[in-house]
Amino acid sequence: MSSDLYREQLLDHYHNPENFGVLPDADVDVEMDNPTCGDVVHMTARLDAEGRITAVMFEGQGCVVSMASASMFTEMAVGKTPEEVAAMGLADIEAMMGGVRLSMGRVKCATLPLNALKLGLKEAGKL
C-alpha cells in the first residue's frame, strides 16, 4: 500500500473509529497504557459459549497510530479464539494496517490494542 493510502486509512480510522465505546456485560475489561508515548487504551470484549470473540470495543486517547490500530483491531479480533489472539504479533498488525513496516518508535503504539486484549484475556481466565 502506498504511504499516502496508508496515511489516509489511518486518519480515517482515527477520525471515524469503528467500535468506539464500552461493551456492557463484557467478559474482558482491561486498560493498558504506553508510557513512552502517553497512549491509553481501554478494551472490552465478549466471548460466546465456544470461547470465540463475538464483539470488541475500545476507548482511549493517544496518537493516530495507536487509535487507528485499536479501531482496525476491534474488527480483526471478532471471530477469533483467545489462542488465536495470543499467537498474533507485530507482523499481523502490520498486515492489518496494509502491509506497512512500522518504525521502532511506532511498534508499541500499533501493538497496544493487541497487547491489551491479550492481557485482558489472561486476566479473565480465558487464556
Summarize the entry for a quick read.
With 127 residues, this protein is α+β, with helices and mostly antiparallel strands. Helices cover 46% and strands 20% of the residues.
**What does the largest sheet look like?**
3 strands, antiparallel
CATH architecture: Alpha-Beta Complex
Strand content: 15-25%
Shape: globular
Write down the CATH topology: Sufe protein. Chain: A
H/E element sequence: HEEEHHHH
Number of helices: 5
Structural class: alpha+beta
The tally of structural domains comes to: 1
As a percent range, the share of helical residues equals 40-55%
Distance between the termini: 34 Å
List how many beta strands DSSP finds.
Answer: 3
Give unreliable regions as ranges.
none
- CATH top level label: Alpha Beta
Could you give the order of strands across the largest sheet?
1-2-3
Query: What is the rounded Rg?
Result: 14 Å
The overall pLDDT average reads 94
